[in-house]
């Protein structure tokens, strides 16, 4: 019997497969189905601070208008009952998931202001989250904003949150940092226990008929896995914090590559959204069969075994591979001489 268990940011997990942040956790039934399918933990959908701000502004406007009528007519105003804020709804869902599921629940936060990150993070801790994933979705589009300033943004909020929250904190990153290993080391020093590599940015498209910009959300494909494999294999053994992979896992082969490269946990979203919870069971079964066929005793034995940990200079190796590949490429015969 293979030991599939793993540990991530101090959480003991029965296997390495974790549904990543997506709308699936908005419904208890879906979360229960994912647990039944074998999920080792869940990352909840993100709570977005600006949505709370917008909701607050709307509620304020509504209350002001309601109060501007004639006093004697107030009795005719409908009773709207207790108003539940977005934060209350999120915390209630977190508590429901915590009560009804046996697996750990990781809350996900996307803040805007410093106080937002800190206060909302604290609220999630108090509501019983097992860990906190910070989804810092930031597109650096300001020409006066340096790379250092972008990194400082992440580090500052992590530092502030670390002062007030005891929970393990996982930073969900984009791949667009000029020196990812250095930045991850800094996150580790600022108190992060894990990083999730990577978030997927929504890519704007241009509609050539209407000449408008569209922002349709596209699900991922397995071709996105290799970007994660590269960075996991470079980071594994060079940083102490835990590594989670997110992006492009559509089958057990993708999950295995992530683990071999160094991920302690493999997250899935698109594949589950497309194919349902059975996909998670299939990936877990495929993983187990692969390990059994090769006489592995545990998943831990696999994690990082194909990383670049023992390479003295991974950058030189990457460059040599690149030059070799480019020079060896032959244009297809019959199309080109
Ligand atoms: C419909 C949808 C909703 C998502 N919502 C969130 C979210 O709320 N917070 C977050 O950090 N990531 C969110 N993501 C990103 C996923 O968690 C994941 O990182 C990304 O899709 C890459 O994994 P995949 O290739 O398995 O889909 C969402 C992705 C999708 C497709």
Overview of this protein structure:
This protein is of the alpha/beta class. It has a single domain (6-312), classed as Aldolase class I (TIM Barrel). Helices cover 42% and strands 15% of the residues. An 8-stranded parallel β-sheet has the order 3-12-11-8-7-6-5-4. It has a two-stranded antiparallel sheet with strand order 1-2. Helix 4 runs parallel beside helix 5 (147-164) and helix 8 crosses helix 10.
List the SSEs and their pairings.
Layout: E1 6-8, E2 11-13, E3 17-19, H1 28-37, E4 42-48, H2 49-67, H3 86-100, E5 105-110, H4 114-126, E6 131-135, H5 147-164, E7 169-173, H6 180-189, E8 194-197, E9 205-207, E10 212-214, H7 225-235, E11 242-246, H8 252-261, E12 265-268, H9 270-275, H10 278-293, H11 314-328
Parallel strand pairs: 3-12, 4-5, 5-6, 6-7, 7-8, 8-11, 11-12
Antiparallel strand pairs: 1-2, 9-10
The structure holds flavin mononucleotide (FMN).
Count of β-strands: 12
> Distance between the terminal alpha carbons, to the nearest Å?
55 Å
Number of helices: 11
| CATH class bucket | Alpha Beta
**Uncertain segments:** none
- Biggest sheet strand line-up: 3-12-11-8-7-6-5-4
Instruction: Report the C-alpha radius of gyration, rounded.
Output: 23 Å
- The share of residues in helices is 40-55%
What is the fourth-level CATH superfamily? Aldolase class I
Q: Which ions, cofactors or small ligands are bound in this entry?
A: flavin mononucleotide
Overall geometry: globular
Mean of all residue-level pLDDT scores: 91
Biggest β-sheet: count, sense, barrel?
8 strands, parallel
């Amino acid at each position: 019997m293979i030991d599939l268990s793993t540990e991530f940011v101090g959480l003991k997990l029965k296997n390495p497969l974790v549904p990543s942040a997506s709308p699936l956790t908005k419904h208890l039934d879906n979360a229960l189905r994912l647990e039944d399918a074998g999920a080792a933990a869940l990352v909840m959908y993100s709570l977005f601070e600006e949505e709370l701000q917008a909701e607050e502004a709307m509620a304020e406007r509504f209350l002001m208008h309601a109060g501007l009528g004639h006093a004697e007519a107030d009795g005719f105003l409908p009773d709207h009952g207790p108003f539940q804020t977005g934060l209350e709804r999120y915390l209630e869902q977190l508590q429901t998931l915590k009560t009804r599921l046996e697996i750990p629940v990781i809350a996900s936060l996307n803040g805007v202001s410093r106080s937002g990150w800190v206060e909302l993070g604290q609220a999630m801790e108090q509501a019983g989250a097992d860990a906190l994933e910070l989804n810092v979705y930031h597109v650096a589009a300001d020409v006066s904003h340096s790379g250092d300033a972008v990194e400082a943004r992440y580090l500052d909020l992590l530092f502030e949150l670390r002062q007030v929250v005891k929970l393990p904190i996982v930073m969900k990153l984009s791949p667009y940092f000029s020196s990812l290993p250095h930045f991850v080391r800094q996150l580790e020093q600022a108190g992060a226990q894990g990083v999730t590599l990577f978030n997927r940015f929504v890519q704007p498209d241009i509609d050539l008929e209407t000449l408008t910009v569209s922002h349709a959300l596209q699900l991922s494909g397995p071709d996105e896995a290799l970007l994660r494999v590269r960075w996991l294999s470079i980071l594994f053994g060079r940083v102490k914090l835990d590594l989670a992979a997110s992006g492009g896992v559509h089958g057990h082969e993708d999950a295995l590559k992530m683990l071999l490269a160094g991920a302690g946990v493999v997250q899935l979203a698109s594949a589950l959204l497309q194919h349902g919870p059975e996909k998670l069971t299939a990936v877990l079964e495929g993983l187990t069969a692969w390990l059994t066929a090769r006489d592995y005793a545990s998943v831990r034995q696999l994690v990082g075994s194909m990383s670049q940990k023992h390479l003295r200079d991974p950058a030189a190796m990457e460059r040599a591979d690149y030059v070799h590949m480019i020079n060896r490429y032959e244009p297809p015969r019959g199309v080109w001489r």
